[in-house]
Amino acid sequence: MRSVGKTILCLMTALLLAACAAGAEEHTGEAEGYGGTLKVRVAMDGRRLTSVTVTEHHETEGVGTRAIDEMPAAMVAAGTWQVDGVSGATVTSNALKAAVQDAMGENSAAASPEAENTSPQPGSAVEALPENILSGTGMCATGRLGPGKDAEGNQVHSFNVVFAHGLFDEEGRVLALGVDQLEVSSPNLEGETASRFTGWPEEDSEAFMQEISAWQSKGALGDRYKLKSGTWREEMDAYQRLFTGKTVDEIEAWYDKFCSEETGRPLMAESESETDQAKYAGLTEEEKKQLADATTMATMSLRDSHGDILTAIRRAWEDAQTVRTPR
Hints:
With 327 residues, this protein is of the alpha+beta class.
């Protein structure tokens, strides 16, 4: 009888496990995150989420990854994708929700009003911003001896004007950031990408107007303004992604730790500067890895005579504190 009881118990256990396996259906889904495609695998018991795993992402370390670290567990605990996003990682939060919805066979325009309010389509980051956001614009101008000299050895002069627009939460974290820059040189600079200023007109006002109207920002120049790791626009976009989720103080702290005091550029292991070599050597292995990840597409200076990007961002935050964007 004891043997029969054990056999019945084993059969019941096997049936129970089979039933659980049948009830926990696994599905995959994807959506576009901040850095690219975000993929998930979910398990469901009926319509209740029992497991959420992010299988692929390209989000910014320490920003978008905060949503990836925190939200799957919250979804499983709630049994649904309808959970709060992570402040400062809005785009990734929305992408994760949309990917889970995709895996569940839903779309982000779900039937309930709550779903419409909490899970917009990927890419509609403005719709997902907090109720109270701060918007500001900052500018910073710098003069420069250069770039270089002309063919006859005459010094080229130029000035750079950086414009920054930011959306911030009430604690000062960047929700969205847009930066562009105008560089204008003296007329002896060669090259098709140069925006030149000949001087104030004495007679030919039409030529003056045409010259000014031809000026283009570095961002607008696109593929024509190339740097070491890509175009100016690509490198600036990489910095914007890196700074999203940070306060201005945290952005400047990142700069102080990871950038050269001499050039304003991120530290490099092969730097010729002894000061930069010593500063790089003082980083931990984890910090060196973070720096390497950040500088894959961003190596240009953030603060020197080429342009003071950090000051423009700080002034955007200062401006944002004086004007509240109505929602």
